[in-house]
Design brief:
By secondary structure, the chain is mainly α. It contains 21 helices and two strands. Strands 1-2 form a two-stranded antiparallel sheet. α6 runs antiparallel to α12 and α8 runs parallel beside α12. The protein is globular and about 70 Å long.
């Protein structure tokens, strides 16, 4: 029987599940003119959830339900930023959803359930919990991608996402079954301890390979990236911003729990499986950096460009994970947070510049933006420079830390590859800046920020935060390092 302590440890997740159900019922009984209430209540729900995460965080790691859930520094950081980024996404999404008559209630409820999936995933202490959180997140995401029922492109993207996602989930589950067969346990810490004594090392390695496939798909790392460009382009932009930001925090959390907690090196010097998955991640990192940056150069659609940019950024995140230690994990988590904030601002800009009957998705749509909306052109410049890793923007320090982690892990060649592709990636980010500042506006395309005041204000804060955090990044890094201390 669960104890009261188990329930208190999972209080933020339980609260969000109940709140999502209440919002769903409320939306069903409200008149169309009153639907806006659901929007503001959803934001309040997320902010209260963030408060519960921080307020109830124990001084030392604790577990609930016989070790199935872990509440520690890692889960605290990832949960908090997931909730805050989702609140920002809700502010961006309101004018977009309203102008296109996309159902408010379904969007907010499914998004909150997806957030609960993220929180389960980053706090998983068992293979069962990993799969539970993953499926809650992905099933909600499939429905969100198809939410615009009048769009053939959205329906096509949802089908592709569902089919490829189901295949990746099946491979992940197959790998988990092999690990269970080799270690006779579903608990990640027990699996960690059982690696040394197991006689089924070959079976364990096969399971590890299949789990790496599942992790690679959820991260969007090459060669498991096939779904990203089509899903990013086909989804409603209000959904794309979620897939491109908060979901990446969940993917990092899943990778850390499965690889470090379950398959890492053993304390006391005994060898786990870290050397094997380090090389696998290094290969995925190089492929992601190459494919993401090179293919992004030829894109004309802004959402597809950001999709291939995501693939390259997941390569940098994997570069940090190659250093299978606290320094590498903290650098990768720092990078995941910085990328999630930057990606939210990038897609937020598309949302703010779009309007009914016009999707600001082509790079040429931004031509002459500085002449029409100089403030938002400046904000987009900050976002592009942060994605490119230009100092002193936030993204620069993320890249610097993961490259340093690779060097400290004895993989200088991988850091050099990362640095080379960072220079190549400058081209397509600077191309967007050039279009905004040096090209003449397209006649008949009056691209201006027409979203409501809350969306414009939040976007301004989001983009300016990339500049501020570029000068004050040390406290966030220290927080990430404390999360992995010991």
């Amino acid at each position: 029987m669960p104890s009261i302590n188990d329930i208190l440890i999972l209080l933020p997740e339980a609260y969000l599940v109940v709140a999502a159900c209440v919002l769903l019922l409320l939306d069903a009984y409200l008149k169309p003119a009153q639907k806006g209430i659901v929007h503001w209540l959803s934001i309040v729900v997320l902010l209260v959830g963030a408060y519960l995460v921080v307020d109830g965080q124990p001084a030392t790691p604790v577990t609930a339900f016989s070790g199935m859930f872990v509440r520690d520094g890692v889960s605290e950081v990832l949960k908090l930023f997931s909730l805050l980024i989702m609140a920002v996404i809700f502010v961006y999404a309101r004018p977009y959803l309203k102008e296109r008559a996309i159902p408010f209630g379904e969007f907010y409820t499914l998004s909150i359930f997806a957030t609960v999936g993220i929180m389960f995933l980053v706090a998983a202490g068992s293979l069962v919990t990993v799969y539970l959180g993953l499926e809650l997140l992905t099933l909600s995401s499939y429905a969100l991608v198809a939410l615009n029922r009048d769009s053939q492109l959205s329906s096509e993207a949802a089908i592709k996402y569902f089919v490829l996602g189901a295949l990746a989930s099946g491979m992940l589950l197959y790998g988990m079954s092999m690990v269970y067969g080799a270690t006779h346990s579903l608990d990640l810490h027990t699996i960690h301890a059982a690696i040394v004594g197991t006689e089924w090392k070959t079976l364990l390695l096969f399971g590890l390979v299949f789990m790496i496939v599942g992790i690679g798909f959820k991260l969007g790392a090459a060669p498991f990236h096939m779904w990203i460009p089509d899903v990013y382009q086909g989804s409603p932009t209000a959904v794309t911003v979620f897939i491109g930001s908060a979901q990446k925090l969940a993917a990092f959390g899943m990778a850390y729990r499965l690889l470090s907690t379950g398959m890492g090196d053993i304390a006391g010097g005994a060898s786990g499986l870290a050397p094997q998955w380090q090389m696998m991640l290094a290969v995925l990192a190089v492929l992601s950096l190459a494919i993401g940056n090179l293919v992004a150069i030829v894109q004309s659609n802004l959402k597809r460009l950001l999709a291939y940019s995501t693939i390259s950024h997941m390569g940098y995140l994997l570069v940090g994970l190659v250093n299978a230690g606290p320094e590498g994990y903290s650098a990768s988590m720092f990078y995941a947070v910085s990328y999630a904030l930057t990606s939210a601002a990038a897609f937020g800009m598309i949302l703010v510049l779009s309007r009914s009957g016009f999707e600001c998705e082509e790079i040429d749509d931004l031509r002459g933006l500085n002449q029409r909306s100089p403030w938002f052109a400046f904000l987009m410049l900050l976002v592009m420079f942060s994605l490119a890793g230009v100092p002193p923007l936030f993204g620069f320090f993320g890249k610097l830390l993961v490259l340093k982690a690779a060097i400290d892990a004895g993989m200088l060649w991988l850091a050099i590859v990362g640095a080379v592709f960072a220079i190549i990636g400058l081209y397509y980010y600077l191309r967007v800046v050039k279009v905004m500042y040096f090209d003449t506006p397209v006649e008949g395309k009056d691209v201006q920020a027409r979203a409501d005041a809350p969306a414009r204000w939040v976007l301004s804060i989001n983009a300016l935060a990339l500049l501020v955090l570029g000068f004050t990044w040390a406290p966030l890094l220290a927080w990430c390092q404390r999360a992995f201390a010991g």
